[in-house]
Amino acid sequence: MRILITNDDGINAPGLKVLSDIANDVAGPDGEVWTVAPAFEQSGVGHCISYTHPTMIAQLDARRFAAEGSPADCVIAGLYDVLKETPPDLILSGVNRGNNAAENTLYSGTIGACIEGALQGVRSIALSQFYGPDNAELDNPFEAAAVHGAATVKALLQEALWDEQDYMPFYNVNFPPIPAGQVRGMAATTQGFRLNTRFRAEAQTSPTGRKFLWVRGGPQHEPTAPGTDAAANLEGFISITPMRADLTDYDMVKNLRDALQ
């Protein structure tokens, strides 16, 4: 199996090393793991692509490349430049430092890479490590992902649906904020919503008198509804949420058609 890995925390992020180990386990001794990751951190860029300017790409080592662009740019670079003659069988994105559950999903560059992969017709899985007081101070805060990541990916490859509809599915995986030995298993979930968590801007004045705005997130351990991603993570489960890039609210289409007649 040939696997392309990327992330949004940057080419030197510790989570990318964890993902490389996961990918090598999944690929097996006869497989290949290729890295095309952002040269600099790209957290929060979503599915952004560098449509109005070129992206510089450099080879750092065997099968290892850095691109001055977003995670989605890296996927495109991997598919149409680095691996254009030998396309990957799978794209893995992460392991993100922090959760990409609930509303975080909509901002995540980790997810953006998988959206692009799915749009390109390649099986894609995003992996993120929830942080909290029970794992943030561990020698390896990514312990849950490191220990359970390969088995989770293998389970999805063997058991999950990978249809070839126009908007191919991809999977959003979040590992709970606990040591690996306390993980209770995997749970199929929907995307949650933290009622009291919103991004906001805080103003600061620089020593030169200029005003700057810092974007700040909200509490990450707010409960979400039962059966949703963040709720499962806080209960000790690995959440697995099937997703598509189609943003249509199908439940509302008929009502809107009736209203417009």
UniProtKB/TrEMBL annotation:
Catalytic reaction annotation: a ribonucleoside 5'-phosphate + H2O = a ribonucleoside + phosphate
Domain (Survival protein SurE-like phosphatase/nucleotidase) ranges: 3-194
GO MF term list: 3'-nucleotidase activity; 5'-nucleotidase activity; exopolyphosphatase activity; metal ion binding; nucleotide binding
Chain residues that bind a divalent metal cation: D8, D9, S43, N96
Location in or out of the cell: Cytoplasm
Pfam families registered for this protein in UniProt: SurE
EC category: hydrolase
Reported cofactor(s): a divalent metal cation
Gene Ontology cellular-component terms listed: cytoplasm
Cofactor descriptive note: Binds 1 divalent metal cation per subunit.
EC nos: 3.1.3.5
InterPro entries named among the record's database cross-references: SurE, SurE-like_Pase/nucleotidase, SurE-like_sf
Keywords noted in UniProt: Cytoplasm, Hydrolase, Metal-binding, Nucleotide-binding
Protein function: Nucleotidase that shows phosphatase activity on nucleoside 5'-monophosphates.
Similarity annotation: Belongs to the SurE nucleotidase family.
PANTHER family: 5'-NUCLEOTIDASE SURE, 5'_3'-NUCLEOTIDASE SURE
Protein name: 5'-nucleotidase SurE
Species of origin: Yoonia litorea
